[in-house]
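Run log, item B.
One chain of 443 residues. Sequence copied directly from the ordering sheet:
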Amino acid sequence: MTNLSKSIPNGRWLHIIPPCIIIYIVAFMDRTNIGFATAGGMDKALGISATVSGIAAGIFFFGYLFLQIPGGKMAERGYGKNFITISILAWGLIAVLNGFVQNTWQLLLVRFLLGVAEGGVWPCILGILANWFPSKELGRANAYFIMNIAVASIITGPLSGWIISVSNWRYAFIVEGLLTLALLAVWIPFMSETPQDAKWLSKEERDYIVNTISSERALTAKQEKQNITLGQIFSIANIWKLIGIYFCYQVGIYGFSMWLPTLLKELTHSGIAGVGWLSTIPYIGTIIGLFVFGNLSDKSGNRKLYVSIPLIGFAICFMLATAMKSNIWLSFAFLTGCGVFLQSASSVFWTIPPLLFTGEVCGASRGIIGGLGNLGGFLGPYIVGWFITTTGNSSAGIYILVVFLLAGFLITLMLPSVTVGKSSMVTIGKSSTVPSENAANMK
C-alpha cells in the first residue's frame, strides 16, 4: 500500500489542506489577538484588571463548547462545508464587534459569542480531513492543518502590533474581523466535502482514497448496531483520559499564547510593535515542531510516544524560561523552545480517536474531547492573569501551567497500547462493546 500511495497523484494535498489552513489561520487570529489588545492598552481603556483580561480571553472557550459535537457530526454526515460557511459568516461579524465594546460586560459577551460561532469549525475540519486522508497520511495531514496555528501567530503578532501602533487596539479587532468575511472567497469555490464530490480529482487518486479508507474501516468488521447515547460515551475510560490530556495541554497552550506579548514586554521592555515581531520567533519553532513530530509519528505509528514527548518538552522549556528571567536571551531561547513543542502533540493527538472509536462514537468523541478539553483555554489565561493581579508577577502562574503540562504527560502514559495487526475493543457500559477503528495503526 505504501508503494501504491507513492505512485498516486497528490491533488488531495494541494486542494484540501490549503483552504483548511487559511480558514483556521484567521480563526486563531481572531481568538488570540486579545493578548495584543491587552498589551496595547485595552485594559486601561476599559478599566479592567489583568484577572478580567484573562477571563475575557478564556470565556471564549465556554462558548466554544456548544457546537463541538454538532460540528463533528456534520462532517461525519457530509454537511461539513455548509456548516463551516455559516460559521465563517457568524464569527466574522462577531469578531468585528470586539472593536466596538465599551465596558467589561460587553467584552465578555462578545468573546463568549465568538466562541460559540467558532466552536464547531475545528472538529468539522478534522472530520473532513479523515474523509480525505488514509490513516498512514492522517498524522501529516493533521500536522499541516494544525500548522495554521503557528502561521496565524506569526501573522497576528506583527499585524496586531502594527495596527495598534498606528491607530489603537479597536482597529486590530475590526480589521482582523473583516479578514474573516473575505474567507468565503476561498472556502466556497475551493473546498470539496469528499473525494466523490471533487470534480478536479483524478480517477486514480479518487479510487485510492475511497478504497483505502473503506478497507481501513472494514477492519472493524461491524459498526455499532445500537444507538449510542452520550451517557454511554461518557462511560468510556479512554474518553476521559483524552479529555484530561487535551485539557492540560490547552491550559499550557493558551496560557502561553495569551500572555506571551506581556511576558515579552516584561522581559525586553520593547514597544508593542517590537513585541509583535519578537513573538513570531517561537511560532516559527512551532512550524518546525509540527512537521518533525507529525512525520515521526506517521513513520513509527507510535502515537502515544509523540504526544508525550512534546508535553514534557513544553513543560521543561516553560519552567526554564521563567526561572532564567534574569538572563533575557537565555529566557527567550527557552520561550522559543516552548514554541517548538507548543502544538507538536496536537496533530498526533487527533489521530488517536479514530484508532479507539468507531462511527458515531468517533464523531461525537471529537466534539466531546475538544469541547471539554478546550476549557483549559479558559483556565490557562485566567491563572496567569490572577497571579499578575495579586502578586504583580507572572512567574507563579506560569509554574502552575507547567504542573498541568506535566499532568497531561502522565495521563498520556496511561493510554492503551495497541500492537500493529491487532484490534482493540472499547467497552460501552457493562454489556456491549464497540470495536476500535484503525486500531492497528496505534502503538
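Observations after the first pass:
- Residues 220-226, 418-443 have pLDDT under 50 and may be disordered.
- The longest strand covers residues 425-428.
Flagged for discussion on Thursday.
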